[in-house]
Each structure stands twice: as structure tokens, then as C-alpha cells.
């Protein structure tokens, strides 16, 4: 009975620490090189307010770069961008796949991209009229979420 209690205690203790998230401020030089290059290429005119490194566990690391105008970029542990959010303000589009930009320019000519998220399977793009457009990994339009 004592062993079962000890085992339950250890499982709960490990579960509690496994879910603990650690966030700390870092310098630009501490970002992965890919993230630094992405910022330099696409946001060089912007002044960085702060950079946070969030560590969920050793495999789940995320970087958040915030600018004074509330623009925010999220990167994965390798430095690949995951999200660029302008908080309803237009964002630069040089890094967005051409096929996605062409679709938006053709179907929604008076709108600009204000947010984009990507994962391995898809892109989700919010445009200035509030619509959210979903594209597959190749940039093919899938659907509209409103």
C-alpha cells in the first residue's frame, strides 16, 4: 500500500513539473540564426520591444518577438516562423508563399494580410476585412472561416 502511495505521489510530482512552463527574456543574438535572418530580411526597419523564450519541455521551445506597435512573431525551436500577427494592422508579405498572395489579391483586392499562421499541413491567413482563409501546405485554397 505504501508503494502505491509513493508511486502516485511521484507520478503527480512529475506531471506537475512536466507541465511547468518557463519564460525568460533573451537578446536577439540568443534567437536561432534562422529567426534572426527572418527578422533582418522582413522586419529590419522595426524596433524590437522584447524577445521571450518559452520552454515547455526540452522538445517544446517557442520564441516570441514583440515590436512596439504590437506586431508579434512566433518561432519554433529551429527558428522557423510559426505566426506573424499584426493585431489587425497589415504585415509585410515577402515571406508569404506567392500562390497565397495571388489568391488574396485576386479574390480580395482591397484587403491586406494582418495575420498568418502555419504548421506542417496548412496556412491560416487573416485579412483586413476579418475573414480567415485556410490554405494547404502548397498554398492551395481550402476554405473561408469567418
Topology:
Blueprint lengths: L1 H17 L3 E5 L6 H10 L7 E8 L2 E7 L5 E5 L4 E5 L12 H10 L5 E6 L3 E6 L4 E5 L4 E5 L1
Give the neighbour order of strands across the main sheet: 1-2-3-4-5-6-7-8-9
Question: Mean of residue pLDDT?
Answer: 89
Q: List SSEs in N-to-C order.
A: HEHEEEEHEEEE
CATH class of the largest domain reads: Alpha Beta
Topology-level CATH name of the largest domain: Inhibitor of vertebrate lysozyme, Ivy
Poorly predicted ranges = none
Work out the helicity level.
25-40%
- How many separate structural domains? 2
- Give the CATH architecture of the largest domain: 3-Layer(aba) Sandwich
Beta-strand percent range: 35-45%
Radius of gyration: 19 Å
Structural class: alpha+beta
Report the span from N to C terminus: 55 Å
Number of helices: 3
User: Main beta sheet, described?
Assistant: 9 strands, antiparallel
Number of strands: 9
Shape: globular
Give a structural overview.
This protein has about 150 residues and is of the alpha+beta class. The chain has two domains: about 20-85, Inhibitor of vertebrate lysozyme, Ivy, CATH 3.40.1420; about 85-145, 3-Layer(aba) Sandwich (Inhibitor of vertebrate lysozyme, Ivy), CATH 3.40.1420.30. The chain has three helices and nine strands. It has a nine-stranded antiparallel β-sheet with strand order 1-2-3-4-5-6-7-8-9, with helices on one face. Strand 7 and strand 8 (about 130-135) form a beta hairpin. It is globular, with a radius of gyration of 19 Å. It starts with a helix and ends with a strand. The mean pLDDT is about 90.
Amino acid at each position: 500500500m505504501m508503494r502505491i502511495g509513493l508511486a502516485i505521489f511521484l507520478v503527480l510530482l512529475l506531471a506537475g513539473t512536466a507541465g511547468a512552463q518557463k519564460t525568460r527574456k533573451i537578446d536577439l543574438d540568443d534567437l536561432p540564426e534562422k529567426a534572426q535572418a527572418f527578422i533582418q530580411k522582413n522586419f529590419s526597419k522595426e524596433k524590437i520591444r522584447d524577445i521571450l523564450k518559452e520552454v515547455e519541455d526540452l522538445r517544446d521551445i517557442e520564441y516570441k518577438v514583440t515590436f512596439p506597435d504590437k506586431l508579434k512573431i512566433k518561432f519554433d525551436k529551429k527558428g522557423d516562423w510559426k505566426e506573424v500577427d499584426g493585431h489587425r494592422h497589415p504585415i509585410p508579405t515577402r515571406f508569404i508563399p506567392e500562390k497565397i498572395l495571388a489568391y488574396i489579391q485576386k479574390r480580395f483586392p482591397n484587403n491586406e494580410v494582418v495575420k498568418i499562421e502555419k504548421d506542417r499541413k496548412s496556412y491560416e491567413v487573416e485579412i483586413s476585412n476579418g475573414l480567415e482563409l485556410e490554405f494547404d501546405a502548397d498554398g492551395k485554397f481550402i476554405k473561408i472561416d469567418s
